[in-house]
Structure formats: C-alpha cells, structure tokens
Task: structure prediction
Amino acid sequence: MPTEEEIRKALEVVIDPELRRSIVELDMVRSVAAHDNGVVDVTVSLTTAGCPIKGHFQTAVSDAVKSLDGVTHVNVGFDVLSDDQKGELQRKLGRTSLPEGALAQVKNVICIASGKGGVGKSTLTVNLAAALAAEGKLVGALDADVWGYSIPRMLGLGAQKPKVSAERKILPLVAHDIKVMSIGFFVEEDAPVVWRGPMLHKALTQFLEDVQWGELDYLIVDLPPGTGDVSMTLAQLLPQAQFVIITTPQQTAQKVAKRSAGMAEKFKLEVVGVVENMAGFTTPGGERFQIFGEGGGQLLADELDIPLLGKIPLTMPLREQADSGTPLVVTNPDDPAAQAIRQVARGLIAMAPVELPVLQSPAPAAAPKPVGMSLPMA
Ligand code: ADP
Result:
C-alpha cells in the first residue's frame, strides 16, 4: 500500500476550482488513512458546508488516489474548516475574504446542451425554469448562448438593463419568478457579439461570480450549441454542473447530440438525462405526424445509459409564447408540450438528492469586490 506521504503527493493534482490551488497546498486534506485491504480514507475540509463543488472533489480525490498501485477503493469524507483555519487560509492566500463560492447558495446547476442549434434548447430552458418555479423552486436562468442569446426575448425582458447593488454585485433581472442573466442585457439589440477567448471567459466568470444569484434550488444554464469555448469554460467554472442533452427525434441528430455528451464526459461532468424535442405533431383533428422522425431521444438515452426525461411534441403555442415573451408553462400549462416539459421538471426534482439542513457557522462578511470593466453596466 502507498504511504500517507505518497497519497498526499498524489492529491496535489486535485485543484480547488475557486481558489485555483491544490488542496494539498491549501491544507485542505484533513486526514489520510490507508488500510491493508487496499481501501484509503481521505477527509477533505471545505470552506463552507454547503459547498456546491463537493461532487468535483469527490471524483477528483478518488481518481487521484486510485491511480496509486495497491489502492482498490477510496472513501472520500468531508468536514468544514474551522474559523481559525479559514483565517489561516486567508492569510496564506493574501486575501481579506474567501470566496464563499459565488454559487455557494445554488443547490443544483443544470446545463442545457445540444449538438446543434435550432433544436429548442432556449425554449426548453425558459419553460423548464418556469416549470421548476411553478413547483415552488427558487430558479435562475443563465443565458450562456452568447452568440445566439434569446432568453431575454423569450422572457419578455427586451430592453431592460441589470443594476448594480451597493455591494457591487450585478442584480439579475426577474421574470415569471426566474432570476435571469444574459449577455443580451449588455449589448445593443442585433449587434453581433464578437467576444472570444479571454473576454468571453471573463464575461462568463462575471456571470457566475459577480451576479447576485442568492439562494437558488436550480440554476439552468442555456449553453451554446456544440462543444466550443463557452461550454468548456463553463465546465471548468461549474464542476458541479449536471448536463441535460436536447435532441430532435431524427437518428442523425442524435449522433450530433452525442458529441455534447462526450464533452461533458471529458470534463467529468455528469450527464443526467436526454430530452427529445419536436417529437411529433398532432393536428386539431387528432392525426399525428412524426415530422422529425422518431426514436432519436430514446436511442441517445440508451447509448449513454441515462434516462429519457421527456418527449416534447411540436405545438404552435410553444413557439408563439416563446416569441411573445411568456413561457407556455405559465400561460397554458395544459398544452401537450407544456405538460411534457412539466414532466421533465418533476423528473429533475425527483433526481436531486434530498439534502438535510447542515449547521454551519455564519460566513465571514465578504469585502465588496469591484465589478470589472468587461460588462457595460446600466
Ligand atoms: P435553440 O435554442 O436550440 O437554438 P430555440 O429554442 O430557439 O432553439 O428553438 C428554435 C425555434 O423552434 C424557436 O422558434 C422555437 O419557438 C421553436 N420550437 C422549439 N421547440 C418547439 C416545439 N416543441 N414546438 C414548436 N416550436 C418549437
């Protein structure tokens, strides 16, 4: 069996995504115990009990230790740094406060992904968000489809601009009980978003770190189609995110959608389900047409060995309501498409782990942090 020192050495590759340093260097590895039967117990100390990136540490610690010869199983446990230890960590990092985790109060992050555009990703994002809100959940929607943003329009937030709080945080706009942030709030309508590389990275980081999301049960993120820069940046910023892949029923579309799943896997993000959109159209006379074919969603779900969370039919009202700025699940929850989306929302709720309340010491007051200059503010 490897020694404690060797195990600690192996853990140097585990990086805290918020503090951007190794958990070993940050003194966050509380204890290590190697047993003769190949089992290793590791306890990691987190900055807050509600740390949303627990899942990331769980996988990263387990993978790092399993890479050592003789290790067959790794138990990863967690505790919380004491106030003294937090103070020590702050001194070490030369900061006046620890990031509480911009998303420390966000319980679930769900990225809505697709292999290509036009499959209904944004429509589903807003309607899923509204359906979760209707189930009594606290919901936010982040429009990360930076080049094809459409969430502001779909939620009727055309001309409004977010304000900045006294603590220098960007306040999300609110529509239909959903807190919303979009690059569309910061650029002139119809102006192309030409940001790439570092600028894009900075804007997305700000959307997560400088937006006052507050307490949320769900943050739904509308990703751009495909597997480009934005998805990768977000994957790094949101190691706790779960992916839902949207596809049309066409068997060829399913192949394209699979690439998104491949990307999520590469970043060790969890793909929790598939939603098939544009699944058939029923005429007022009751005749059913499979306009975009059938079976693609199930095929993809089977291939990825994850559930098909729903099949959303084509309905005119879904498109009309998206165009007029109110989610269909709000105006007409009984429309077949709205019903199917509400079903998906309930599936997501059923999947989320039931969390017991954790007792935690009050977080230290965060020093106001200046909002950088990459986003033109109202
Ligand atoms: P994406 O975000 O994947 O590019 P959108 O959500 O913008 O796709 O959808 C593309 C178009 O298709 C929009 O006009 C939207 O209203 C419409 N649409 C999406 N899903 C449906 C559906 N199930 N029934 C009718 N229209 C739909």
